[in-house]
Design goal:
It contains five helices and two strands; from the N terminus they run H-H-E-E-H-H-H. The protein is flat. The model has no long low-confidence stretch (mean pLDDT 82). Strand 1 and strand 2 form a beta hairpin. By secondary structure, the chain is mainly α. Helix 1 packs across helix 2 and helix 2 packs antiparallel against helix 3.
């Protein structure tokens, strides 16, 4: 159980609740965050839940549909799902939940201990 206090919003799926609990465990284990912004965690939960629901609908109904004039069009929810995916990715980056953002957080932590970052080492070598 996570030491970080946060209550998942009502109305989200069990899958979303499980995801948020895993995120909280990760944040707790990483010791990068002692407190969290509950509003952005709410956004993470809502966007993740929306993304999951859009995905399920599109998978069930098909990504491409035949229109009234026998032309093929993408599912109407595809655009909305893409918008939600972008917002979800931004929040995941903020919390270090993507591979790239995790490496950035690790680098920042290393820098706090007085070590030079890889960029600083490179710049210092080029000055010599």
């Amino acid at each position: 159980m996570s030491k970080i206090k946060y209550k998942v919003p009502a109305g989200v799926s069990a899958k979303t609740k499980a995801y948020i609990n895993k995120v909280l465990e990760y944040l707790d284990d990483s010791d990068c965050f002692r407190e969290i912004d509950s509003a952005s965690m709410d956004e993470l939960a809502i966007y993740y839940d929306s993304f999951q629901k859009f995905s399920e609908i599109i998978l069930k109904e098909g990504a491409i549909k035949q229109g009234l004039h026998n032309d093929w069009k993408e599912h109407p929810l595809t655009k909305r799902m893409h918008e939600v995916q972008i917002q979800l990715f931004k929040i995941q980056q903020e919390y270090g939940l993507t591979l790239r953002s995790r490496s950035r957080i690790i680098t920042l932590e290393d820098g706090e201990e007085g070590d030079e970052s890889p960029l600083e080492r490179f710049l210092n070598r080029s000055e010599r």
